[in-house]
Amino acid sequence: MSRTVNSAVRPSPGAVRPYQFPETAETTLPNGLRVVVAPMRRLPIVTVLALVDAGAAGDPAAHDGVAALTARTLAEGSGALDGAAIADRFEGLGTSFDASADWDSTVARVTVTPSRLEAAFSLFSQLLRAPSFPAADVARRREERLDDLAQLLAEPRGLADIRFTGFVYAGARYGRPIGGQAASVRRLEREALRAFHAAHYGPRTTTLFFVGDITVDAAVALAARHMGDWTSSAAAAGSAGVVHATMRPESRRTRIVTKADAPQSELRVGHVGVARSHPDYLAITVMNAILGGLFSSRINLNLRERHAFTYGASSGFDARRGAGPFVVSTAVKSEVTDRAVQEILREIDAMRAAPPTVAELSLATEYLAGVFPIRFETTAAVAGALAGATVHGLGAEWFRTYRDRVQAITVEDVHRAAQEQLDPARLLVLAVGDPATIGAPLEALGHGDCAVVSATDDPTEDA
Amino acid sequence: MPDSTLQLPIATHTLANGLRVVLSEDHATPIVAVNLWYHVGSANEREGRTGFAHLFEHMLFQGSEHVGANEHFELVQRAGGTLNGSTWLDRTNYFETVPAHQLELALWLEADRMGRLLPAMTQEKLDTQRDVVKNERRWSVDNQPYGTWWERLPALCFPPEHPFHHSLIGSMDDLSAASLEDVAEFFRTYYTPDNAVLSIVGDFEPQAALAMVERHFGGIPRGVGRPALPPMELPPRFGSWRREVVEDDVAAARTFLAFRVPPCGSDGWYALALLASVLGLGEGARLPRALVREQRVASDAGAFTFDLTKGADLLICDVTARPGVPVSTALEALVAEVERLRRDGVAPAERERALALIEASWLLQLQSAGQRADKLSQFATYYGDPRRLNDELARYRAVDVAALQAAAQRWLGEDNRVSLSYVPKPAAQEAA
After folding, report:
1. Helix axes B103-115, B71-78, angle to 10 degrees
2. Which chain B residues are closer than 8 Å to A115 by Cβ?
3. B278 and B172 within one domain
4. Can you tell me the distance from the alpha carbon of B214 to that of A42, in angstroms, rounded to the nearest whole number?
5. Total of domains in chain B
6. Domain interval for residue B392
7. What is the ipTM of this complex?
8. Which of B23, B54, B158, B408 is the S-S candidate for B165 at Cβ 3.0 to 4.6 Å?
9. pLDDT digit string, tens, across residues A388-442
10. Are residues B179 and B68 in the same domain?
11. Which DSSP string do the residues of A381-406 spell out, in sequence order?
């Protein structure tokens, strides 16, 4: 064996091997139910995902959290089966029923081996079509939500997230959690869930995805067998609560949410971002990767590797049908809170001031293009991606052309995205921490009006 | 068994310097996972250096002779790959998943830091990573509700002289004390090819991959032999019920109930893993059903094994009381379920439910090349044979209901319990 290898020389890559995102076939049953099938033959696994156009943005007024609670209560009863029997049945098949709502939709999911698919799907479809929402279980799920909320608010990260969006989207639905705040959750009775289900769960609002070890014909036949006779006048929940990008806070400001004696400050810096449908979405994605999306991004290298203020710092745009938030998130040692904020603001300014270097751009685009097949190793990941594409009307082409389009982004595109989508004059700085340590230094930074607020007294709570 | 039977192709080789190599081909997707386990963790730390194994893991991303600081991350991400590392009580792993044509880059990066780390180590890098880790400690332990359970529970369950007793993340003082000499010594002692397993999973050709491995790792000298750990053996049971109650900044009480059980992977362990699933895996398991659904005393309840392969493992139940419910109520309800299990045993359907969930979770995990590679490294490191992965599910299935009840009676009794309870601080006052 040769020992003449020079270890200083970086190996060059081999020949690129072709990758194709799984092919999909789409059918619409006579009752309007859409069925999308993506065969993947790697392991004996099938993921079934039902996407229902029933997101939290469509929660009726005063019923914040109803989409989420409806999803969480689907498996609490149907016909003669109670919640315990339903859990037993799924778990006996080696799976579980998982349903939740996000801003734009409700998603129910089950992943199972092919021999157990029929049994699992039969129950899955029954729960979507005819959940019974037993009053006692609705009450229990409601209490669970209240308990979760109490836990979240006792936890610095959860508290920071909730209060940040509360301030950024003051008064709008996006400013209150998907699952609702305590006051609205307490109002959610069985009847509200039944009404939401009847109004929004139906064949015309639902798309079924089958991904994994199954043929197109078998999947369509299965869907027809269990859901072909589903009739309902349900319509999409719509998006009354979505926010458009024009809605941004008036000016920069700083808020300190009190957590006495905290050894760290949880920081959130951001403002209203963009909708998923924004024409510049890919350029924004690449810009964010450079700013704070990657480990090797400017914000992380600055705050973690240069200053050692934190274990990690990142930024993100949460793109929804409406304009979700842009936010930089980190947790820093209390004593350096003001300096960390200063560095974050400086990086945002720098991103706008000049285009990135070619090396920064290529790191981001090569990463996003290269990691694409790694993101889609599992049937659940592919099903989730297909569902997301459906919500935003992207079509199957999105996946086939994604890598080429990412690699076509230029430094000018990134610069434009930064100038248009980062708005230093409107950034909210929020810190969950100890005002005794961080109050005066943050005030001295002069990032707008600086106020200390209590952790328990939430202005969005009365909504 | 149902159609979850798994037969992964698994080939093994050992280089002249002792590096064990595990290969598992899968050509479904053009990606490849590279995974290295070093058989060293916090258990190997010397007195006064708690947290060092983990701090050292951070240093491995600070460059090596031919790789700049943070360049490891950048090169892998630029290649379109994902990467990370993690530290556990008795092992440290490093891993990347990259597009198949970038396999050699990943191997070269791992080899450069296995063979030539020290030229890149500086005081400044150590100081920076020390502060990063202190922030990691604040973030994951000190400023998190219940966050200290990671160090309190092992401290209660293992005697002070035992290598699993002390904190994995380390104390602030010990982190401050770590020096560059410690880095060099730890590296020379433990980061040697004969103390490591390299697994490669995915779209590669075995001959070509082995040639790359030989090219980049073959010249790294064997170590001088790592020092043995202090004795890990323990009495089979705790011998009593030890209790600790901690006041914390939490909204609801939480209690952990731990039992000392046979080491993970030993013959007697599989019954305990199944019992943990019967008690706490899935909504239909006994604890969620009784405490969350029926009695409404808990918002969350589960059970799991800690998966320690040396000395003894732990079976741990954790129950979060509903806000306002006293911790004693939650603990009593939990104990009542444990006693019922000991008294009445497990129904065949419960055993089947637990097996079905365990089998499914294996299958789902193994969809990912990275997780497959990690499991192969784990089995090679702990059991000396990665092929055992293919028999693993049969070991669970071999446990019948009689063996489950016998294990519950033997291991879950009052003479073998540790409880650690978190209770809300009395009305924490808030600054104006």
Report:
1. 170
2. 2-3
3. no
4. 30
5. 2
6. 241-424
7. 0.94
8. B158
9. 999 999 987 899 999 999 999 999 999 999 999 999 999 999 999 999 999 999 9
10. yes
11. HHHHHHHHHHHTT--THHHHHHHHHH
Return the number of other C-beta atoms located less than 10 Å from residue B324's C-beta.
Answer: 11
Q: Which parts of A117-185 are beta strand (E)?
A: none
Q: Give the model confidence (pLDDT) of B244-288 as tens digits.
A: 999 999 999 999 999 999 999 999 999 999 999 999 999 999 999
A449 and chain B in contact, CB less than 8 A: no
Domains and CATH numbers, chain A: 25-227 (3.30.830.10), 253-462 (3.30.830.10)
Please report where in the chains the tokens 């190599």 appear, as a residue.
B21
Query: Could you tell me if B89 and B146 lie in one domain?
Result: yes
Substitution target from A151, A333, A339 for chain B, most B beta carbons within 10 A: A151
Query: Pseudo-torsion of CA A146, A150, A153, A158, nearest 10°?
Result: -60
B contacts of A263 (beta carbons < 8 Å):
138, 142-143
Q: Which of these, A82, A76, A58, lies nearest to A68 by C-alpha position?
A: A58
Q: In what order do the strands lie in the sheet with A253-258?
A: A310-317, A325-333, A264-272, A428-433, A253-258, A449-453
Percent of chain A with pLDDT over 70: 96
Q: Which residue of chain B has the CA closest to A15?
A: B101
Rounded to two decimals, the pTM is: 0.95
State whether A373 and B30 contact (CB < 8 Å). yes
Judge contact between B204 and B213, C-beta under 8 A. no
> Which residue is it, tokens 């801003």?
A103
Q: In whole angstroms, what is the distance from residue A418 CA to residue A355 CA?
A: 9
Q: For residue B326, give the amino acid letter.
A: P
- The pair of structure tokens assigned to B286 is 């006994």
Q: How many angstroms separate the CA of residue A62 from the nearest CA in chain B? A: 25
With an 8 Å Cβ cutoff, are B143 and A150 in contact? no
